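User: I would dearly like some help making sense of a protein record. I have put the entry right below:
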Amino acid sequence: MHRRRMPKLALALTALAAAAAAPAATAQWAPDRPARILVGFAAGGTGDLVARTVAEVAAPRLGQPVVVENRAGANGMIAAEAAARAAPDGLTMLLCPTGNMTILPELPGARLPVDVRTELVPVANVALSTYGMVVGAAAPWRTVAEFVEAAKARPGALSFASVGTGSAQHLAGERLKRAAGVELLHVAYRGASLAAVDLIARRADAMITNLGDVARQVQGGELRLLALGDAAGHPLFPDAPKLGDTLPGLEVTSWLGICGPRGLPPETVAAWSRAILDGLAEPAIARRLADNGLRPLPEGPEAFAARMARDRAAWGEVIRAAGIKTE
């Protein structure tokens, strides 16, 4: 009698195991309380704009509010450390820009509180930041070629501004120097807005920075846009020349994406990535990004990770060639 019952019992246990395993195989992360995106820079900047846009589009798709928390300082690493140390439950994410993820890790002597290469994981890329080379409206140069000619005539006399040693703007200037074969003086500022003030006053000569930092001054006639760093151009300035037109091969862009702490479950990564990429497909979101010098760059975790690896190698080569070290 017991022998006749065993097959039925075995079948019942098998069915029960399959039922228990099914939810795990198709599990979808559903947050049970508000999530937050940490931003390593002050409110009002390009990174803050991108984070708030992500929060807006992700919240209804995740089914919970998403708030933005600004933790400025240490070149964005205060926020990066907080995100890396957070529980991998998908409730704390990080706005991760090019500089934090691909430049700082390559700087010799950089003392970083976390290793972003291993302690943060890519979730989704959001936007490409188009860079532009600008000078003050009163400056005598109207093209990149004219600026290069002046720099060659007076080696080391002209300057380029950045937002700090090792910043994307700094490395963009170093790439310009190499491509053009000129010597320029690097002047570091505490922010792009301060550098723009000195460009307008002619206390600095040029800067290559993202359009979100300078678009309004260019449109207002205070700064002159000599060229765009993105070979694809940008709708804000459809007739602007490209850096590569004068210096072949020179292209300067950066990106801003979303990362999370190491150990995020695959279903959590998938839920965030899907919410972000679906939101970027909205025409109104694309227009908002474009109005601020950005364009959507929707990439899932794998493509975003591959981009990071390529950019670390490329920026690392620039850093080594220029001999840049942390101050």
In short: Strands lie at 35-39, 66-70, 92-97, 120-136, 159-162, 185-188, 206-210, 223-228, 253-261, 294-299. The CA atoms of residues 198 and 204 lie 5 Å apart.
